[in-house]
Amino acid sequence: MHMAELKTKVTKASVTDFIRKVPDESKRKDALVLLKLFKSITGEKPKMWGQSIIGFGSYHYKSERSTQEGDWLLIGFSPRKQNLTLYIMSGFSEHAPLLKKLGKYKKSVGCLYINKLEDVNLSVLKQIIKESFVAMKKNHKS
């Protein structure tokens, strides 16, 4: 049986070029801050995933619910029109105490949505990114 592949894949596109083209200036500035932050926390080289996601690290993903399989980022973010989307692949159950201190955000299963970085406590955000990255690395030894 053929495995369905994940549509979003690593590309050769330049992360800095992508950020430079973010139309909204404050989003662009926030994206540069996040880029630095993620780089220093993960020690990974940022890569573009698809058109708009900046990912750090990767792991092989196999869905238990479907035939989807492929590589996916360990952690990443995207400066989207509506918000800054952070891909926290470990989920949020372990981060509940930190989230209480984070500030203004919304979340879904594996995403954290922030309007602008000044809405949140950066050191708390760093902690969430770090814990999530460490958890993902531990669960997905390559």
What's the arrangement of secondary structure elements?
Blueprint: E1 4-5, H1 15-20, H2 25-42, E2 46-49, E3 53-62, E4 68-79, E5 84-88, H3 96-102, E6 106-107, E7 111-114, H4 122-139
Parallel strand pairs: 1-4
Antiparallel strand pairs: 2-3, 3-4, 4-5, 5-7, 6-7
Helix pairs in contact: 2-4, 3-4
List the main descriptive attributes of the protein structure presented here.
142 residues, alpha+beta, Aspartate Aminotransferase, domain 1, seven-stranded mixed beta sheet, 35% helix, globular
Nutshell version of this structure?
The protein has helices at residues 15-20, 25-42, 96-102, 122-139; strands at residues 4-5, 46-49, 53-62, 68-79, 84-88, 106-107, 111-114. The chain has 142 residues and is an alpha+beta fold. The chain has one domain (4-139): Alpha-Beta Complex (Aspartate Aminotransferase, domain 1), CATH 3.90.1150.
Describe the structure.
The protein has a single domain (4-139), classed as Aspartate Aminotransferase, domain 1 (Alpha-Beta Complex), CATH 3.90.1150. 35% of the residues lie in helices and 27% in strands. The protein has 4 helices and 7 strands; from the N terminus they run E-H-H-E-E-E-E-H-E-E-H. It has helices at 15-20, 25-42, 96-102, 122-139, and strands spanning 4-5, 46-49, 53-62, 68-79, 84-88, 106-107, 111-114. Strands 1, 2, 3, 4, 5, 6 and 7 form a 7-stranded mixed sheet that branches. The longest helix is centred in the N-terminal third of the chain and has 18 residues, at 25-42. The chain is globular.
